[in-house]
Amino acid sequence: MITLTGSGLTLGKLKQIIIGREQVKICPEAMRKVMKSRDAVERIIADGRTAYGINTGFGKFSDVKINAEDTEALQLHLIRSHACGLGEPFREEVARTMAVLRLNALLKGHSGIRPVVLERLRDMVNQRITPVIPSQGSLGASGDLAPLAHLALVLIGEGEAVLGGIPMPAAQAWERRGIRPVRLQAKEGLALINGTQAMTACGALAFLEAEQLALQSEWIAGMTMEALRGITDAFHPAVHEARGYPEQTAVAVRMRNWLDGSRLTTRQGELRVQDAYSIRCIPQVHGATWQVLDYVREKLEIEFNAATDNPLIFDEGETIVSGGNFHGQPVAFAMDFLKIGMSELASISERRTERLVNPQLNAGLPPFLSPEPGLQSGAMILQYAAASIVSENKTLAHPASVDSIPSSANQEDHVSMGTTAARHAARIVGNVRRVLAVEAFCAFQACAIRGKEKMSPALRQKWDALSEIIPPLTEDRIFSCDIAKIERRLLEEARISGLNSDTGSGS
């Protein structure tokens, strides 16, 4: 059971909730803060004071005063009108993560929302009533309005949800769990949809996969090094300490550990003086990606525990401020950075694959690892496929955060496009896994040719694990099936790994 307090939520805890299926509970002290901020909203209504989103319209309508008897209808109209997401829905894990993150943010006690609404968010998470949330339609400022409105629809028993893998009307899902949906009151609809939880949820799950992929890329690169009889001197501790980046040094340490005991790797001057960059610069390039991951982790965990709606209530209602914490620029930058860092892991991996299959570069291995060069093409087109994905990543890596389109009659005249950045980051992470799977396949085949008995003990274990799902290459076959199997194995290992860990692995 994970206790949510409005602070202290980490990627490790989030993974336990979403992947490990831990349930959540609400901290009583946090709930007391929630009740105090709700009391402030009630006083504003009773006193007839004007406050944005409580008794005014929204966006360009912020100057329109709403009568007290219409405040409940105002919230209902808000949710229905803003639930205009488009495109394919987010996967269920993203939608559940959105609910967890919104609950945690509201528990900070600055939003003026009733405890019952937070209890329903908790029930949504624990009972696994998952909102169907279209993935397109957010500008990433004023919050992720459209996606979060679809989440809020389910809270009030409207829209669509998934329960036990079956899509159904939200009201039916609540009924099956014996729980009544909520009726929103003043401020509550706005509190639910003013936030960055769609981009942050999508980005957080992409990050969790990316972090594990960065680790997996190292043993895959190590296997390639053995297949190419790479020079281990490039990983000498002094080289990396001389530069000073801790992430680079940590990659070099792990590479030395993976290759320890190998009878396939070489030393300077034995076969050649130095390797190509895609081999020699593994610590420098992979280490730089770990620097990106460290940055992204920090920004995501800040956002997990941030109050991101508007207006915010302070001093037990004495201070109510309309601000802009819903603006997704910090997350947008982080997601664009993640896109670039992960794209480079695929780029350097594809270059190593080229060296494994190119007879001019692969140190005597058969052309394209073919069992009968000419009659059989071997892994020739696998490199094509990897190159295609690397090229696609270059397009997806274009920063979304440099774009902005004004909205709400120019009241909301600068937006982050952070959700687009996060969606593209998730696509890139999936693409990187496919490129690494191609490298792993080729390195697996090449090491079988070199002599798997000469591999390092650590990498031989990885080779044996791969041999359980793919056979050595003795005849051309449908290689997409092999790549899909490796890809699934990498994903399964990533989901299991680090479930009880709260720290990064870059340094």
Q: What is this structure, in a nutshell?
A:
The chain is 55% helix and 6% strand.
Structural commentary:
This protein is mainly α and 507 residues long. The chain contains 18 helices and 9 strands. Strand 8 and strand 9 form a beta hairpin. It starts with a strand and ends in an 11-residue tail after the last helix. The model has no long low-confidence stretch (mean pLDDT 94). Its EC number is 4.3.1.3. This is Histidine ammonia-lyase. It is an enzyme of class 4 (lyase).
Q: Which secondary structure elements does this structure contain, and how are they paired or packed?
A:
Layout (H helix, E strand, L loop, with lengths): L1 E3 L6 H8 L5 E3 L1 H20 L23 H12 L3 E4 L2 H15 L8 H12 L3 E2 L2 E3 L8 H11 L4 E4 L2 E4 H7 L11 H6 L3 H31 L9 H7 L2 H14 L17 H4 L1 H23 L7 E3 L4 E3 L7 H29 L22 H17 L21 H33 L6 H11 L11 H18 L11
Parallel strand pairs: 1-2
Antiparallel strand pairs: 3-5, 4-6, 6-7, 8-9
Helix pairs in contact: 3-6, 4-5, 4-9, 9-11, 9-13, 9-14, 9-16, 9-18, 11-13, 13-14, 14-15, 14-16, 15-16, 16-18
How many distinct helices? 18
Gap between N and C termini, in Å? 29 Å
Count of domains: 2
Strand coverage percent: 5-15%
From the helix content, strand content and strand pairing, which structural class follows? Answer: mainly alpha
Which value, in Å, is the CA radius of gyration? 26 Å
CATH level 1 class label of the largest domain = Mainly Alpha
Main beta sheet: strand number and arrangement?
Answer: 3 strands, antiparallel
Number of E-type strands: 9
What oligomeric assembly is this protein in? Answer: single chain
